[in-house]
Amino acid sequence: MPQTPYTEDDVIEAMLDVTDNGLSQHEAAQKHGMPQTTLSDRLRGIPPKPEVI
User: What are phi and psi of 14, to 5 degrees?
Assistant: First the structure.
């Protein structure tokens, strides 16, 4: 499955949607085009994985 491109800004906006706007993690992840596990990890304070070249 190809990886969908999303930016750090997308992650931040999704995090704000969850914390400030009351969206579920699933809804925010879909809205911003990222995996829900990525959003969940970031909300728990887990840093992003480095890009593999």
Answer: -65, -40
